[in-house]
Each structure stands twice: as C-alpha cells, then as structure tokens.
Design brief:
Elements: H1 12-30, H2 43-50, H3 54-66, E1 70-73, E2 77-80, H4 106-116, E3 122-124, H5 136-150, H6 164-176, E4 186-190, H7 191-203, E5 209-214, H8 218-226, E6 230-237, E7 241-242, H9 244-252, E8 256-262, H10 275-288, E9 292-295, E10 320-325, E11 336-340, H11 345-355, H12 361-372, H13 376-401, E12 407-408, E13 416-420, H14 427-436, E14 439-443, E15 456-460, H15 467-485
Parallel strand pairs: 3-14, 5-6, 5-8, 8-9, 9-10
Antiparallel strand pairs: 1-2, 4-11, 6-7, 10-11, 12-13, 13-15, 14-15
Helix pairs in contact: 1-3, 2-3, 5-12, 6-12, 7-8, 7-11, 9-10, 13-15, 14-15
Length: 487
C-alpha cells in the first residue's frame, strides 16, 4: 500500500522509532495518562512532538489498533479502546435469601451521610459529585437573573406538576430516549428521592412487598423503611442485572406489589442492562400485572456513544413509573427531579399536593433557562469523560493496592465502584480504621435489607483524580490487607 493512509517502513531507523513509539504510548495508557475512551494526540501532533514521520506514527497507531489497545473513529481520530482497565475478576452474582423482610438501615445511612458531609474526610463514601465538575456556577447565574428580573412574578406557588417550561424542556430531552410524553404527564419533585417515594405510595400500602435488586442503592432501602414496606432482594449479576428467572418466581407468588429497579446505570454495581433484557423484564411484569418503578438518576452519565433507553421507552401498557433528577449532573443542592407516572399520575399528584404542595418556583425557572440555553449536552460530554477517567484511575489503584482475592465491578457509566473482598474480611472493621485516618467509604451491608455484603464496599469516583485520592486508595488497600492478615 502507498499514499497518505499507508505507512511503509523504509529503514531500520524507522522501525526502531516506530517500536519506540508503540512502547511510549502503551506506557502512557498503562500508567493512566490516557484512560479508556479518551482521545489520543493526532497523528500530526505526535509527528511534530516526537520528531518522527507521519507514516511512522500511522504505522504505530495501526499496530496498536490491531492489538485492540486503541481504536480509530472516522473523522475524529484515535482513542484508547474501551476495555477493562483492570485484570481483577468481577463480583460474583448475588444470591440473597428469597423472602421478603422489613428494612432497618436508617441509622447506618444517617451515619454515612454525616461522614459524607465532613470536609475533613476524603470523599470516597457517598455518591455526590464534586461541585467543581458540575454546572452549579452557571445555574446560579440563571437563578440570580431570574430573581432580579422576575423575582416577584415567581414568588408564588406553582401547581403540583411544577413549572411548565421546565416540564417542556424535560419532555424535549425525553423524546431523544424514545419517551413520547406531554408536559402534563410529568411532575417536578424534590430530587429523585421524592419521586421514588411518591411512586411507591401510589402503588403500595404499608406492609406490602417491593422487589429490588441485590445489592441495591441504600436510598431505596431508606425510602422503603420510611413507608413501612418490605424488601424482597433478588439475585443480581454485576454485568447485566437482575435474574429474570428469580423475578418470575417471585412475581408468580402474587405477593409482590411492585418492582423497583435501576433504569440505566446501576448503583452500586454499575451495569447497564441490554434493551433485549429490558423488554423481557417488561413482559414479565406485564404478565403478572405488577407495576415497575425505574430509578434513572444516572441515565445521562453513560460511557460509550449510545445513551441507554429507559424501561418506559419500551412500555406500551403504562405499567412503568419513571423517576429521575439532575442531582448527579448539574446541581445536587437545587433538588430538581421529576416523575413520569403514567396512569398513576393522579395519585402521585394527590400525594405531592398533600405533602409539599409544590416545589420552589425560582429554582425551576433557572433550570428551564439553563436547559433551553443549549449548554447541557456539551456539559454532559465533559463530565462523562471526566467520570470515566476517574473510574479508570480508581480501578488501576484498587488493583495495585487491595489484597489478593479482591473483585471489582466494571461500570458502564456513573461514578462508583463496587468491591468484593475475601469473605472473612468485614468492611465495617475496615471503615472504623479508615475513619481514624480521614478516609470514608460506603460499607457493603448498607446496600442490603438482609445484612449481606459485609465483605464488600463501594467507592465514589465523583471527584477529580489526584495524588490525594490515590494515596487514600493505597492506604485503604493497606488497611484492608492488614485487617485480613490479622483476622
């Protein structure tokens, strides 16, 4: 082959330089300078910086592509391949007890939230992204302008559904995911937590059973406890989600009032369920006449090119209640979420009116202005790259620092890692020791209603990776190894 797109090695010097370049790029990738999915310098940039020919750079890039280390994207350049950043095995599929039980996790969760609010602790605990990464600054300016220009006009109660313009913006974005709804079908909530609580109140009464993944987000368990509902934990795989056979058996008993599952990116396991499995799951719940509540708070933080489609995009029977918020992507402090409740909307609005009447008007106006400005998508692209880089750095640090036998998740989005340590190690003990050294994380038992996952933990990757975080992960691995050796 000849021409601009071909690379012909004409001398031993060229071959030596090309091999040197391959080694150099591999060391940068292995060292975490370029994380999976990140863009590599262009062929011309490398040629100028390394003082080698374009043909030599292309030859090196093509060889790295053949090895599966990098990938070419038309009209865009070369990128580090999206492959596992760790050789550690994934967590084992869970196998929780197949019976419903009361939930009692609130005390543990409140302790964890206290740790998360302590600025002296290194923030590996709660999944709260760094304010430096989000768009709170831009949002604050929209809020100030709304208060200055329309403060009196918006110092009123809205209807229970919330600000009309904000709902229109949410509808516009929902259409991109296949959710064809009108603004009147949406209600604005105080974050995703209120949305989940309203959904559960609409479909279940105290004492009834809600099927959940295992492990599941501890906030879900907290809401179940507050409403007096029982949790039925289902076996869940860290690669593709809940076991459909186990779900079918549970639904066949007739005791399950509703299912509450992650919609796109699971917390804490990080998996992304395939569209095919989502459709199969929807057929199951429809056959048994059981509503599905989906928590899609991480839906905009996916890794890869195609956004995940929520369950509600495939639902033709209006059995699905969709809950989400902007807390993980724009500003957690504004507490702007929403619920798409289908045929359950009248009940949702009734409970919303009775509990909080409506949400604050001005923050909703500011959000509507921000979303209509067109900057949200570019902001999302930036934070997705950042979170993916953070996860890659954390994976490599865990692999180096934690004891033999550690297993770790492979997130398809979001910014948390789930670690499964050797069974005899209790992460509550590790947490006590880590807190003394200013390090916080989320112990595994808080993600279960049955007290399982005592040898597991979740790490947050929501802050920019730096030497402080790297030292903290290294020290946490040393504490775990020491606790294991002394057991």
């Amino acid at each position: 082959m000849t021409g601009a797109g071909a690379a012909v090695l004409t001398s031993s010097t060229d071959r030596y330089r090309y091999e040197q370049l391959i080694t150099f790029i591999r060391e940068l990738i292995d060292g975490g300078v370029f994380a999976p999915g990140s863009r590599l310098p262009s062929v011309r940039e490398i040629s100028v910086q390394r003082r080698i020919s374009i043909s030599t750079v292309l030859q090196a890039y093509r060889r790295l592509e053949d090895q599966g280390i990098i990938e070419a994207r038309p009209q865009s350049g070369f990128y580090v391949a999206r492959k596992s950043a760790s050789s550690l095995p994934p967590p084992r599929p869970s196998n929780p007890p197949r019976r419903a039980r009361d939930v009692s996790v609130s005390r543990m969760i409140l302790d964890l939230l206290e740790y998360a609010a302590d600025p002296r602790l290194i923030p590996l605990g709660c999944a709260i992204p760094s304010s430096e990464l989000l768009a709170a600054g831009r949002l604050d300016r929209y809020l100030a302008r709304a208060a200055r220009v329309k403060g009196t006009e918006h110092n009123i109660y809205t209807g229970p559904r919330g600000d009309a313009r904000l709902r229109q913006e949410i509808v516009r974005r929902s259409a991109l995911l296949g959710q064809m709804v009108s603004p009147d079908e949406i209600a604005i909530t105080c974050g995703c937590t209120e949305a989940l609580m309203l959904a559960l109140k609409a479909v279940a009464r105290p004492g009834e059973v809600i099927a959940v993944e295992s492990p599941t987000y501890f906030g879900v368990l907290h809401v179940l406890e507050a409403l007096g509902l029982k949790a039925l934990e289902l076996p869940t795989n860290a690669s593709d989600g809940v076991d459909l056979g186990a779900l079918d058996q549970a639904l066949a008993t007739g005791s399950v009032a509703a299912c509450l599952f992650s919609s796109s990116i699971h917390n804490p396991l990080g998996f992304r369920m395939s569209d095919e499995k989502k459709i199969a799951l929807l057929k199951l719940v429809a056959r048994h006449g059981v509503p599905l509540i989906e928590d899609d708070i991480y839906g905009d933080i996916y890794f890869g090119n195609e956004p995940p489609r929520p369950f509600s995009a495939f639902d033709r029977r209006a059995q699905t209640i969709y809950c989400s918020s902007f807390s993980k992507t724009i500003a957690p402090g504004y507490r702007i979420g929403w619920i798409l409740a289908g045929r359950y909307l009248p009940k949702v609005l009734e409970y919303k009116f009775a509990s909080t009447l409506c949400g604050p008007a001005l923050p909703q106006v500011a959000f509507a202005d921000f979303l209509s400005s067109g900057g949200y998508d570019s902001h999302l692209r930036r934070i997705r790259r950042t979170f993916e880089n953070n996860v890659g750095h954390m994976l490599r640090a865990v692999e180096k620092a934690f004891p033999d036998g550690t297993r770790v998740s492979r997130p398809a989005g979001g910014f948390v890692l789930w670690l499964e340590l050797p069974k005899r190690l209790k992460t509550r003990k590790v947490l006590d020791l880590a807190l003394r050294e200013g390090i916080c994380f989320a112990p595994g038992d808080v993600f279960s209603a049955s007290g399982r996952y005592t040898n597991c933990l979740r790490l947050s990757c929501g802050h920019n990776w730096d030497t402080r975080l790297e030292r903290a992960v290294n020290r946490l691995g040393e504490i775990a190894a020491s606790a294991l050796a002394g057991d």
